[in-house]
Design brief:
Elements lengths: L1 H9 L5 H61 L1 H9 L8 H4 L13 E2 L19 E10 L2 E12 L19 E12 L7 E10 L1 E3 L2 E3 L4 E2 L26
Parallel strand pairs: 1-3
Antiparallel strand pairs: 2-3, 3-4, 4-5, 5-8, 6-7
Protein name: Type 4 fimbrial biogenesis protein PilX N-terminal domain-containing protein
Organism: hydrothermal vent metagenome
Pfam families: PilX_N
Length: 245
Amino acid sequence: MLYHKYRGVLGNHKGATLVIGLVILAIISLLAVYSSRKSVMEIKISNNMKMSSGAFHTSEAGLNHAQRILMNLFQEDEANQQLIASDPNNQPVWTFLLGGSLAAYPVPATYFFCQGCEAGDSGIDGPWVSGGIKVLERNIDIEGISYTYTVTIWNNNDGATGAACGGSSSLDCDGIIMLRSVAQAFVSGSTDPVSESVLELVLGGEIKSLGAILPGLSQEFANEGKTSSGGDINEITNFNKTSII
């Protein structure tokens, strides 16, 4: 009798369906949580890629915008016009802009870029992140994301062109300047950028009979797609950027 009694208890499957259902429900819930978290992560990755790509293209837009501004300024400068009028072979320069003689840019540059130089050498008093001429600064709002771009220029080291210009931040002799475009992406209500892109170029200026042209747009890791004239010069290969201000 006792054997049959325990056998009846062990063979009783009442409630098993409920237990199995709860186990299956728990598994489904775990899968749903995992899928939800994965979807959220993919959305965040997608947004990060979107803002990173947007910052890069905004930085490129800043360079293109600055190029047009600089082209007009370069062509309209009276000193450059007189220089070319006296001798078409003369090299027009950027001293009018670097020296702070324009009403829109009244403060002269205090630093210049010297490739391979360290802070304190050749008249450099600080890193190549300050002391230049801010050409423009703009803000763009796209789908809830605010993009800003700032383009600054510095003189290069004109040491090879003469002692007067060698190591000068505001006196130009070779018509070559350095550009940096910094773009940042901000989400609504945030003061800290979520993405940043920095592009740097070498820019050489000439004045021809048809107007001002700016050959030699050369970006770091330059290639045929990084110039509007198809002739990269003076590729920048050494950057020791320590901070962005």
